[in-house]
Each structure stands twice: as C-alpha cells, then as structure tokens.
Specification:
- With about 170 residues, the chain is mainly α.
- It has a domain of about 110 residues.
- Strands 1-2-3 form a 3-stranded antiparallel sheet, with no helix packed on it.
- Helix 2 packs across helix 3.
- It is rod-shaped, with a radius of gyration of 44 Å.
Length: about 170
C-alpha cells in the first residue's frame, strides 16, 4: 500500500519504507504556562468547531417543517387506508358469516336437524359443519322432520280456505 508517508508491504512483515521527498516539518511543542494562553488556544478551537455547525439550527428547523408536512400528508393517506382496510375486514367478516349460515342451513336441511341445534353446527368449512352434524345426529335422538320449515316458505296452502298459512302441528308461534 502506498501513501505519502511511506509504503507497507504485507508480504514483508508490514515494514514501512521512508517517505519519498522531504519530511514535513513538525512544529516544536510549546507548553501552555498561563491561563491567557490556555483561553486563546481553547477559544480558537471552540470557534473552529462552532463554525462547522453554524447553520445547524436552521437545518433543524427546516427538517422539522418538512417532517410536519410529510406527517400531515401521511396522516390523511393512512387514515383513508385504515378506513378502507377496516371496511374490507368488516365486509369479509359479514361474507364469512353469511356463507357459514348458508352452509348450516344446507346441512341442517340435508340431515333433517331442527333449527334449535344450529348453535352446535359450527365450523369454518362445509366439511367441518357436516362432520359436527353427523356427530349430533348419531349421538342425540333427533326427530327428523319430513320437510324442513324454511322462513318465508308458506308451503302448500291449497287445503286452507281462509288464505292464512297453516301452522305445523306441535309448534307454537309467539
């Protein structure tokens, strides 16, 4: 590796060769003996360091203003993104609940289970709901209905002459 002070060769044990050209003249050390000399030396050094950062306060203020602007823009964008995500999550939850209710109705109708056992038919897939319905029908004596009662379905009312739908026998409506 070559630099102005000399060269070092790792293959030769990191020995340095003398620099080419005249060596720089070193200042002779003069010890500080009085408080005035110390204050002058320190004052000069402090001035040099402070001059490096003279515009630091201005840069800090500019950065703070920029951050405020970015945060204001970001806040509106994030607010709308959060609202959209919450709405999407709510829609997904409603769709999932509607699909599970449809599956429960389908399985209950297929197996001939009463609506009162609907709370026991839980699951996130049709197969899970069917498996629970099979367990229920195998372990709980359930009177299977000939035709399940579907809300809104009036059935065959041809024998009824007064125009009102017939109530199934044995069921009480409040």
């Amino acid at each position: 590796m070559t630099d102005t002070t000399g060269t070092a060769d790792p293959a030769q044990g990191n020995e340095q060769t003398p620099p080419k050209g005249d060596p720089p003249q070193a200042k002779e050390f003069k010890p500080i003996t009085t408080q005035e000399e110390f204050n002058r030396a320190i004052g000069a050094r402090v001035y040099e360091e402070r001059s490096k950062f003279s515009d630091y306060d201005d840069l800090k203020k500019a950065k703070a203003e920029l951050e405020k602007i970015k945060e204001a823009d970001k806040t509106d964008l994030e607010k709308y993104a959060d609202r959209a995500a919450a709405a999407e999550a709510k829609v997904a939850a409603y769709e999932k609940a509607a699909q599970e209710a449809k599956w429960r109705l389908e399985v209950r109708t297929e197996m001939g289970l009463p609506e009162s056992l609907d709370v026991l038919l839980t699951g996130e897939t049709l197969e899970e709901i069917k498996a629970k319905a099979e367990i229920i029908s195998a372990n709980i004596p359930v009177k299977k209905t000939e035709k399940p009662i579907v809300p809104g379905d009036t059935g065959d009312n041809s024998a009824n002459t007064d125009g009102k739908p017939e109530r199934p026998k044995g069921q009480v409506f409040l």
